[in-house]
Amino acid sequence: MIVSVHIADVGVRAVRSVLRARPRPGTTPGLRYAETTLTGAIAAGPPKVRPGRAALLASWDDDAALDRFLAEDPLARLLAGGWHVRLRPLRFSGSWGPMPVEIGPGAAQDEEDGPVAVLTLGQLRLRRALPFLRANSRAAGRAAADPSMTASVALARPPRFVGTFSLWQSASAMQRYAYGSAQPEHQEVIRNHQEQPFHHEAGFLRCRPYGARGRLDGHEPVTEAGLTPRIP
Q1: Which domain holds residue 185?
Q2: Which residues contact 4 (CB under 8 A, 6 or more apart)?
Q3: Is residue 57 part of a domain?
Q4: Which is nearest to 163 in space by CA: 83, 82, 71, 99?
Q5: Overall number of domains in the chain
């Protein structure tokens, strides 16, 4: 199993086309899960939607399935002018029924302190939306100010799907943000969720980036995180 994240500036009108073109397992060979989303900034304050930018989050049997999608699918052509990254799952916590996560044998032992990507996935409880946004704002502001985070994007497909993608220079830097005593905002969000869940279902996936193509805001984030990606 591999995961891919695709982010592209397609224009305001084409965002609707991306949302409608969500690929389906069973009709797209080798696809296990897919979500097409609106995007925004990970930052303090109210949600900031990025007009004209869309994203695809997907999981696949293997690289060959993703390669076939990139070569043949109309949605891939819509997103081709942007950036995508290939990810190998390392750790998973929580649950995400639509996408059962497979961790490869030896993945945890191979988790040296190198660049990591983190995906958060949530099925929002609508009555908890405002408390979630308030709590998340504080943690997001801290993350946005952390120089170890080289790329980030908020993901949303109203009314319920919310998520984030972030890329960090090292696992230790990510863990300092998430669990360090100097930055307690993220831990406060976790405690609030445990006491009164924001989501019907939530999952947290840590991955190793290993391949990337294109540019995001004029740069290649995986290289800036300190890893030379294999360009498939």
Answers
A1: 2-224
A2: 56, 57, 58, 59, 60, 66, 84, 85, 86, 87
A3: yes
A4: 99
A5: 1
The CATH number that applies at residue 160 is 3.30.70.100
pLDDT below 70 — which residues of the chain?
A: 106-112, 180-193, 227-232
Residue 164 contacts residue 42 (beta carbons within 8 Å): yes
pTM of the model: 0.89
Query: What is the CB-side half-sphere exposure of residue 67 using CA atoms within 13 A?
Result: 6
Reference 55, options 120, 10, 3; nearest CA is: 10
* The predicted structure's pLDDT at residue 177: 75
- Provide the pLDDT for residue 135: 81
> Is there a domain that residue 229 lies in?
no
Beta strands in 44-183 (DSSP E): 48-60, 83-94, 116-124, 149-157, 161-168
Distance CA 29, CA 39 (A): 26
Q: What is the pLDDT of residues 187-212, one digit of tens each?
A: 666 666 677 788 899 999 999 999 99
Q: Is 231 a member of any domain?
A: no
In a domain, 232, yes or no: no
Secondary structure (3-state) at 71: helix
Residue owning tokens 């908890």: 128
